[in-house]
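> example.struct
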């Protein structure tokens, strides 16, 4: 039985998802974190993103010392299984492996010269190397630690990209840390699910505020399951997403940029 997607075809919608091209934050590597538990679950999400018009996805499993102690060697075999399944089924989706790093002691130890799973990117003719990082959800990182991350990565020629900048509750009333991140050359992303209210009104308001401020470079699925693909699809007629795309702040692949695979 064919899958019936709960959204309209891309040639009938207000936002052309194919213009974004690549989703650069997802958890589809099977069985390595709290995302897809098997290849079939991951394939459902790949099919959903393909149906929207995306042509590529960067798979970014968690690397978190206490909970998901992953590294390139543990992640590459799981990614290879997904990549092979996508190829075998002739699904038109390019995949690339990177990681989402929790800003913990092990990540800090990698900063000076350790191997990082990065995302090669091109923006307005300039080549960039991105690394996706996340803060802890319950306690703000020390400003000195954030400054060290920004300085050391940029010294290495790497642009730090903050995952789901809207989801840290301690920043909702005081966003100075986000302002500093942006002012010092860090890039920021938000999750589609936040814009549809999945994490509550304060998170949604923070996401909208960050977009309107011009801080946001990427709108991502952060896909752990089909609910996150559905969230992206439901933004098809979002006025704030449309305004953000028209503002030129988006650095997605469909706007003259794409990763160098």
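> example.seq
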């Amino acid at each position: 039985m064919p899958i019936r997607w709960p959204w309209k075809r891309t040639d009938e919608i207000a936002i052309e998802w194919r213009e974004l091209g690549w989703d650069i934050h997802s958890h589809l590597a099977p069985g390595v974190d709290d995302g897809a538990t098997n290849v079939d679950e991951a394939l459902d999400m790949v099919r959903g993103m393909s149906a929207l018009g995306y042509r590529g996805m960067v798979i970014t499993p968690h690397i978190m010392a206490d909970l998901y102690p992953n590294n390139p060697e543990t992640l590459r075999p799981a990614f290879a299984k997904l990549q092979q399944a996508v190829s075998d089924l002739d699904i038109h989706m390019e995949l690339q492996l990177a990681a989402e790093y929790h800003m913990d002691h092990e990540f800090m130890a990698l900063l000076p010269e350790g191997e990082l799973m990065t995302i090669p990117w091109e923006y307005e003719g300039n080549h960039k190397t991105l690394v996706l990082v996340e803060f802890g959800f319950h306690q703000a990182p020390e400003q000195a630690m954030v400054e060290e991350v920004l300085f050391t990565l940029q010294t290495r020629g790497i642009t730090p990209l903050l995952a789901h900048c809207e989801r840290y509750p301690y920043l909702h009333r005081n966003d100075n840390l986000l302002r500093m991140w942006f002012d010092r050359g860090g890039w920021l992303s938000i999750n589609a699910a936040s814009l549809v209210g999945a994490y509550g009104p304060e998170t949604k308001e923070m996401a909208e505020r960050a977009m309107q401020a011009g801080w946001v470079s990427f709108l991502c699925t952060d896909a752990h399951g089909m609910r996150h693909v559905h969230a992206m699809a439901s933004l098809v007629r979002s006025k704030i997403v449309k305004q953000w795309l028209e503002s030129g702040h988006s650095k997605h692949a469909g706007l003259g940029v794409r990763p160098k695979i």
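> remarks
The chain has one domain: 16-255.
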